[in-house]
Write a structure and sequence with these properties.
83 residues, alpha/beta, Rossmann fold, 3-stranded parallel beta sheet, 3 strands, 18% strand
Length: 83
């Protein structure tokens, strides 16, 4: 293989490497689907971070923010600040 082909192959493989930054998510609503599917999936994902919860129920917020170690929460009224 020529030096040019080696260089081209190396630069191509670098461009396919995943980003080191994590995608951050906020989950709006803490109902059944969020608890059974969404929150567990985000907790096990390696390329993302569960950054905030937007609840309508304070009891669920306290329980789930502790369980999933979510540092921030926003009310529905403060949703714009979450973005």
């Amino acid at each position: 293989m020529s030096q040019r082909n080696k260089t081209k192959k190396r630069s191509l493989s670098k461009s396919l490497e995943p980003e080191k930054r994590k995608i951050r998510y906020a989950v709006v609503g803490l109902g059944y689907i969020a608890q059974i599917a969404v929150l567990p999936a985000f907790a096990s994902a390696k390329n993302s971070e569960l950054a905030a919860l937007v609840p309508n129920n304070r009891v669920k917020l306290e329980k789930l923010s502790r369980k999933y170690n979510v540092p921030r929460s926003y009310s529905y009224e403060d949703y714009d600040a979450c973005l």
